[in-house]
Amino acid sequence: MNTYKVSLSRLYNVIVDAQNKEDAKQAVETFLSSSKDISTKRDKLEYHFKIKEIDMTLNDVFEVEEISE
Predict the structure, then answer these.
(1) Residue-number span of the structural domain to which 35 is assigned
(2) pTM of this prediction?
(3) CB 43 within 8 Å of CB 23
């Protein structure tokens, strides 16, 4: 079996209640995380793969939009 490094980018829209934009930005950057392998043993056998490492390389907010007060 070969080993591959796959670079993956994901975008999330998160709705958060906060005191201000900076607090909203900081909370989302700090507490939102999904870099976890959720594949089962069966998935690995069926699709012939094994995730060896997940490393978050980008966690930047690029826009904060107030949608209600």
Answers:
(1) 23-51
(2) 0.61
(3) no
